[in-house]
Design brief:
Blueprint: E1 2-7, H1 10-21, E2 25-30, E3 35-37, E4 42-44, H2 47-54, E5 59-60, H3 68-77, E6 81-85, H4 93-96, E7 103-107, E8 115-116, H5 119-125, E9 130-137, E10 147-154, H6 161-185, E11 200-201, H7 217-226, E12 233-237, E13 240-250, H8 253-257, E14 266-269, E15 274-277, E16 282-290, E17 296-297, H9 298-304
Helix pairs in contact: 1-2, 1-6, 5-7
Length: 323
Amino acid sequence: MRIIFMGTPEFAVQVLEAIIQEGHEVAGVYTQPDKPRGRGKSVQYTPVKELAMEYNIPVFQPERVRDPEVVAELRTLAPEVIVVVAFGQILPETILNLPPLGCINVHASLLPRYRGAAPIQRVIIDGETESGVTTMYMAKGLDTGDMIEQRVVPIDRKETGGSYHDKLAAAGAELCLSTLQKLAEGTAPRIPQDDRKSCYAHMLNKAMGELDFQKPAEELERLIRGLNPWPSAYTWLQGKSLKIYEAEVVKSETDSHGMNDMPGTVIAVDKTSFTVQCNPGALRIDSLQLEGKKRMKTAAFLLGYKLSAGMRLGSGLENTRDN
């Protein structure tokens, strides 16, 4: 089958690799323009572009895929189907209607649940026990097109955004090949979405990772896992940002004995971890990264940082300590 592939991040790489290995003809790859990244602001290729170049597949990086010259270019390439995976631009109807077999999207949720930009992280933050991937015919709305197939992927108790991303990427690659086969055979179904069951997964940003210890420990632990590795959950320790990557929900004496340790207070420190009061419950912090330092286990952090019970975490608490 002659395919145009549109995708940008790491999640799309496994799908493109699977399509290539299956023997389909990839006539071209469309991905977002290269952008400067890191402290040195050096220009880096998108993950999808890097893979396409390995296989000598033509790469196109338009600023606006809806521009008339881009649409004309796609017509010249004459794809039978366009496969879209986290491309990062909305396709106009002129492109949606261009390939005879349609534009197919691989979406990282069990639609109609978790439409939008960040379904992988949101299902963990929300405490779901399973999600998955969906292939669908693309339509004018955002993730609203008729579904073709779905694959359920359980969410482990200690799942992170990073680990679940990798599981869904692998599942999405397998599901995409199945869908392409059904399209070629003319057996691909059209299953309308029930909009009443939909919810939206908004794009991630760094601000959403700030830990509010006035919230329950279980809710904060899910936030930490969902935002690991990016953009990461964080708090403040003596005026410096402190990213939290791993934490465990534990009971605290404040909860069981009616004590009055304020949320955000360090209530226990041992050789391998420290524990922070929440509302209710507490979090034992097992992995972190202090501003200006590398990510490390809390045990290594405590070897070089004097932390004691009574200190408090949070913004505006540079030198605060509960007595």
